[in-house]
Amino acid sequence: MFGLLGPNGAGKSTFINILAGLVNKTSGSASIWGFDIDAHPRNARASIGVVPQELVFDAFFTPWEMLEVQAGMYGVPKAERRTEELLRVVQLWDKRDAYSRTLSGGMKRRLLVAKALVHTPPVLILDEPTAGVDIELRQLLWTYVRELHARGTTIVLTTHYLEEAQELCDTIAIINHGDVVCCEPTTQLLARIDEKEILVDLESDLDQIPADFARFRARLDGPRRLAVQVSRKGNDVGAVLSALSASGLGCAIFPPMIPIWKIFFCNSPVRPTMMRPDHGYEF
């Protein structure tokens, strides 16, 4: 799996739209599954499935009708269509005859994933697929994505979060203002990141940082939130829990969900060099 990360406006969606044929590039080249998007646009588009960040579909179609129409537009013969299989996989079989406008946000997100897979593309692009979805749906989606990857599908994932990228991606590229500033195996990239931030939500207001946190780089992020910087390599998480216990604070502790591009630019000991490849990227 390949992770594509960067701040808002970095060019992630533009890059995806170029591959999908929705935006014309100004220069360079790009190939999908060996097909140049300019020389062989039809084969290139047939080799890719895109799950957009926005929920876009016809509100008056049922899930069954939507997948059938999508498969027909890709020229999939009726005998080879996987409509029932896909609806069962994304747990929408019982909603197959309901108007899509009546589906919940999570169901609509799952329906978009099914739409992208009707023609069995070898490359699947997920543009921030977990934005605004609950934990249960996120786990369900990632389980299915892993299954697709195990079957040989190349997955390209855009996300802001280290947790998702670290858990799913083999390689991560970070882009900023249209430039690839880093492209490394996930383990190698994470080794360059020294710190992570833990957020603690408190049951009562604080006007200063407790003395038990003097050994940490901590700050108040509001009257009831404490942000603590800890080392990724040490056992500082246990020390934070001990400090919370010693201070007698009632709280809930949250895992770090910090944008990986922000951690990388702020904390990496080596500033990445700008890479301007002379050749195109291939997926």
UniProtKB/TrEMBL annotation:
Pfam families named among the record's database cross-references: ABC_tran
GO molecular function terms listed in the Swiss-Prot or TrEMBL record: ATP binding; ATP hydrolysis activity
InterPro entries linked: AAA+_ATPase, ABC_transporter-like_ATP-bd, ABC_transporter-like_CS, ABC_transporter_ATP-binding, P-loop_NTPase
Sorted UniProt keywords: ATP-binding, Nucleotide-binding, Transport
Keyword ATP-binding: yes
Record-linked Gene3D superfamilies: P-loop containing nucleotide triphosphate hydrolases
Ranges where the ABC transporter domain occurs: 2-202
PANTHER family associated with the record: ABC TRANSPORTER ATP-BINDING PROTEIN, ABC-TYPE MULTIDRUG TRANSPORT SYSTEM, ATPASE COMPONENT
The protein, known as: ABC transporter domain-containing protein
